[in-house]
Amino acid sequence: MTGMTSDRSMRRRRIWSWGTAGAGVVVVPVLAALQHIGSVDGMLAVVGTVALGSVVVMTVGIAVNKPADGRPWRLVVASNAVSCVVVALWSTDIELLRTVVAPALGFVPMILTSWAALHWLRRETGSKALRVSLDALLVAFGTAMSVWVAFVTTVIERTGDPFDASLLRVLCLVVDAAVLTVLVHLCIARGRANRAYPLLTIGMACVTVAHALIAIQPAYPGLTPTTACLYPLTIGFGFMIAATLHPTMADKPPRRPRRGDNFRQRFVVVLAVLTVSVVMTVLYPPVGQTDRLVRLALFALLFCAVLIRSEIAVGQSEKEEDRARHRATHDDLTNLPNRSALYDDLAAGGPQANMGCCLHFMDLNDFKLVNDSFGHRIGDELISLVATRVVAAVGDLGVVYRYGGDEFVVASWSFDDCPCVAAKEQRTETPAADPTIADRILAAMRQPFELSVGRVFVSTSIGVSFSAPSAGPLNADDLIREADSAMYHVKATKPSGAAIFDDRLRSIALSELELTNAMREAVGRDQFELYYQPIVELHTNEVIAYEALLRWHLQGRMVSPAEFIGLAESTDLIVEIGEWVLDSACAQLARWRRQQSTLRIAVNVSGRQLRGGGLLDTVKAALERNDLPGSALWLELTETALIEDHLSAREVLRELVALGVTICIDDFGTGYSALGNFQKFPIEIVKIDKSFIDAIDRDAHKVVLTSAIEALSRALGLATVAEGVETTEQEAQVRAIGCRYAQGWYFGRPVPAAAVVGGLALATPEC
């Protein structure tokens, strides 16, 4: 309701604003009628009343709209008040007041409006104020030249005295031109965001016309009536009132002014004024020595102003180019050199050509968790703090680059502080004497980060590669690839630390490359096979499902899933392999369900499959192709896979559940184990990790933890599967705890489909 009231009030103020602008125009016929009957005093009375009314109404407008900075608007009100006094003095019979005081006082409104214009200029444009002011000065000098030639030269030619031209009125026109230039810039800069500036500009333009009609009288007597200036003056008052009543007059200036200078638009105005001044100078030849001196002085001032403006423009252009180069080679968030700068520096070979390089590639551990928990703004805050801390830790030993995301690179051309083989061979002190760059970074990262949401601990993994001075020109791609490979080796083997890309890691990388290439051909060559392990319902001791487990036969040997699943996860191969697993498992289940119609199959799904966007279609296709209901399929996911993109994951899982598919959390207790995931995602089954079951028959702590997971799951309406049950004692313990399902070697090892004992019957327990 408050919003509707506010909108109604804004609309009403806009109507009043445009109404008063029209009212100023409506007064013109009244002035024409009074002039027709020869009532000059009546015309002055009308204009004086409009001026006085403008003071009152504009004061009310300022009070209603409550601008953040009302000072410039009050200056405009004060200028109208002075104009009201000037009009009153014009109507008096006292010669001194009418001919001396009124013209002198008439210059005061221009001082006040100039003050207001400068205030707006400084507030709205900030650092651009000097350039706009110089452009306004150019317009003022050009206008001074034109007005002098058009008005003053004519008077000099007729009377021989330039002071007969009323130089004060000429000066008013010059100031008007400068003020209008500033106001036009404000109109262009704010665009449609502020309608008050265009209204005020129209009002000031009308006042300028009035001043021009006053200044033309001494030069061309009888050309226009003496009262002609009252018409545009009245219209100007109306538009000034409209500007003050318009609600946009209260708009605050943008926090970040547009980078563009709007010089092209201003240049049109400047060029037009200067062109007119040159043409006027050519058309009106000088009259006498005074005229020549004044023109020469104006030309000198104009030349100096153009020269200064040109120098500023060139300097600004150079600064913009420097800023553009800096933006191209530096990161906006941290102001560190970026990836492009890294490649440039490596291509240059460091401070001295071919002097070698030691590269540290670091990645933050669990940064995505911070982003997902607190949002990207806090993530950016953390990145900025990490950058500051790493730069401080490295000091002058190397250059820190932000490679992208949460990855940083430190390039050092000093082997004395690099934990690489070559450096260790060169050091004469003991390794503990001086910490290496990697040591410094790791030590700095152990301290918590104070974020706006609280204290956060973040570790890092660092991979190091190097190129010795004798190795020839640096190969940037090889250095970065090797350091990146070493960094991922750290991530895979320990929570944080540093590793050097040496011959051992090079051998591992080559083996992984070969394994990856072999994996790409494995699906087409039927090298993959599914093994099946039973899942038993403890109350009935019946097999209710089988988990499909992937096996790979490569060149006569069985490749362990631990060797290739991680590689497949790091590429898109896991998606293709996952589709094959899902379709093959469903096809096998369809054959088994001819004997046992309630049997189900459990299939593991990776995080990459879930994020890829095609999982739902893959599941639908596999179910339809094998004529299976959704209830026949269990999909097992780790908590890590869910948390990596929880929003899209939640939508996909909900659609899968709508098909009847059962969602299981696999290896519960080894990942993030966030209890909130039970509410975020449509989970139905929790698989308690084997690490809890291993010693459950002799470790009281494992019993407590497993019992707690079971009790929590039961309270939330979830079933539990105890994984890794291998002994009679473990089976008895999980049964006593209350687990509904169990799985492990006690009930049956993973075997090929053809080797499932008794077709589908429960395998003989193995002790």
From TrEMBL:
PROSITE patterns: EAL (PS50883), GGDEF (PS50887). It comes from the Bacteria. The chain crosses the membrane at residues 15-37, 43-63, 75-94, 100-121, 133-156, 168-189, 196-216, 228-246, 267-287. Residues 355-503 form the GGDEF domain. Keywords: Membrane, Transmembrane, Transmembrane helix. Residues 512-764 form the EAL domain. SUPFAM superfamilies: EAL domain-like (SSF141868), Nucleotide cyclase (SSF55073). NCBIfam families: GGDEF. This is Bifunctional diguanylate cyclase/phosphodiesterase.
